[in-house]
Amino acid sequence: MKNKRYCTFLFILLFFSSIIFGITTVKENNAVTIENPTDMKIEMLGDFSESFSTEPHRLSGITFMDGSIFGITTSHGFIYEYDAVTGVSIGNYSLPFATGGIANDGTNLYISTYLTPPNGTIAKFNSTGAMISSIHTPLSVGVFRSLTWDGTHLWAFQTDVNNLHRIDPDTGVIIKTITLPFFPADIEWYNGLLWCVDYIEDRVIAFDPQTGSAVEGFASPYLSSSGIACNDTHLFHSNSDSFDEVSITRIPTNPGDVYLREELSISNASDIAYGNKQFFVCENQSTSIRTYDISNAYTSTWSVPFHPVGLTVMFDAYLAMSSEESPYNIYTYSFDGTQIKSHTALDVMIKSLAFDGAFLWAMGQDNILYKLDPLDMSTLEEFPVSGIYGITYDYNNDVIWGYERDEYLIRAINTTTGEFRDEFIDITSIGPGFGYGLTFTGEHLVLAKFTDSDSYYYKIIPIVIEDEPTPTPTPSETDTQQPGYFIPNIPGYAEDLIAFGIGVVLASIIVGIIVIVRRSKR
Question: Is the Cβ–Cβ distance between 317 and 299 less than 8 Å?
């Protein structure tokens, strides 16, 4: 009888032990593997991947509301509605006046009159063209050519004087006025900025509504581009000159995405620097430094008596640049091209420069990253860093970003150890090309490169590098210190012991019940 009891106990104990083994196996098999995607499709501002026809209407102004694109044609009295995804025409709505600009507040449409006395009238309509109300802003000259909504107020562009007004939508009272240096065919509010289409220059320029200064810009997808609209994920452009069409562009937001590409007015860009609200670019085997404003528009050129190869801005006050010829001096220049000082530096050509606010970093042709004193250019530290061409300092992440031209990667370099961090940005899909230029604007990484005598720079969205976690030892076959699977806040070995104890207790209870039942039958 005792042998039978022991056999029963052993059987139950083995049964629960197998359950415990199964739990451990489940923990191992449910480990999550996170893969780093490397595929990236280039869709940048200024390029469009999709479009739809608006034939026979060439829309001069457009706005996005509730899944639809609503458009107008200047001096015509209609609203044209299209499905924003399929481009299917939904309807045409007749208006009692000729149209100037169009906007929406998320529920209703606002449309300004065009050469219909009295000028300065803006009417509110529902989505089917029924008028709800109107306001009037007296204008001495011009008309309200384009409109947009900033969340609480209307913005209207007044022709003839090139004024952009912020208007109370209930009273028509002008609250703020910005004078623009160009004629916007249409305007749009996005991400806290006013995006305006420069009809003459075929550019889109974004303005800070507080200061009126340009902060971004790119080439329009169309010549004579007119309308612009946004739904927070995509930009829409219309053309009123050559095509009855609306283009659709995804707004890049992911790390590694190319935000926009801009063509440079040089053939062989080598390095690029950003500061003083402008870009500075040098060209291979050239003595020229070209400057571009913050909206990416070319502004001026000045020359130096050597071939500059590396550029960076120091102390937000002047440029540092390296020479392509021996003795490989490093020079400092004012932003308008006046030499400040020449330093006899390293006995090696410096391909690129970066400044971190305290030290100057120099990427040597000898695959050494030099940390220099910015006052006398003396060497403070040296770090072997292979394969890197252009460098720049990212003060948001406190890293040096380096461009691997052969691998088409932008990699993070630790400013303390000079070692690569695991984070990198794969820019392979930009394609092959040459040039080392890399700079940081505070928002984007900017890569300058050239292919077949055409130079471009690409604004790339950088990753936000988190603080490095405390290293966790790799568990071995006998190491059970990793966190538990079912009880995450205790070690795995403790969870296993608890499970084993529960199994033994359950087995004992079952054996006890069996013994009691058998005795009761006697």
Answer: no
- pLDDT tens for 156-177 read 999 999 999 999 999 999 999 9
Asked whether residue 212 carries a pLDDT value surpassing 90, the answer given is no
| Cα angle 87, 92, 97; round to 5 | 130
Q: Can you tell me the distance from the alpha carbon of 169 to that of 172, in angstroms, rounded to the nearest whole number?
A: 6
Q: Which two tokens stand for residue 213?
A: 């200064």
In a 3-state reduction of DSSP, which class is residue 47?
A: coil
Cα 143 from Cα 112, distance rounded (Å): 8
Q: Which residue has the tokens 């440029």?
A: 319
Confidence check: pLDDT of 61 > 90: yes
**Residue tagged 């039942």 (tokens):** 517
331-362, pLDDT tens digit by residue?
Answer: 999 999 999 999 987 889 999 999 999 999 99
Taking the alpha carbons of 282, 405, 325, 274 in that order, is the dihedral positive or negative?
A: positive
Strand order in the sheet with 409-414: 391-394, 399-404, 409-414, 420-426
Q: Kindly give, in sequence order, each residue whose CB lies less than 8 Å from that of residue 497, ignoring residues fewer than 6 positions away.
A: none
CA 196, CA 183: separation in Å to the nearest integer?
9
Report the percent of the chain where pLDDT is more than 90: 58
Q: Please give the pLDDT value at position 68.
A: 97
Reduce the DSSP state of residue 3 to 3 states and report it. helix
DSSP for residue 516:
H
Q: d(Cα 351, Cα 26) in Å, to the nearest integer?
A: 53
Residue identified by tokens 């939508």 is 169
What DSSP string runs through 283-341?
ETT--EEEEEETTS-EEEEEE-SS-EEEEEEETTTEEEEEESSTT--EEEE-TTS-EEE
Cβ contacts of 300 within 8 Å, gap of 6 or more: 290, 291
Cα 271 to Cα 283: distance, rounded to the nearest angstrom: 7
**Contact present, 202 and 214 (Cβ < 8 Å):** no
Q: Residue 10 has what pLDDT?
A: 45
Q: What pLDDT is recorded for position 112?
A: 95
Lowest mean pLDDT among 31-35, 153-157, 293-297, 417-421: 31-35
DSSP 509: H
For residues 447 and 395, give the distance between their C-alpha atoms in angstroms, rounded to a whole number.
17
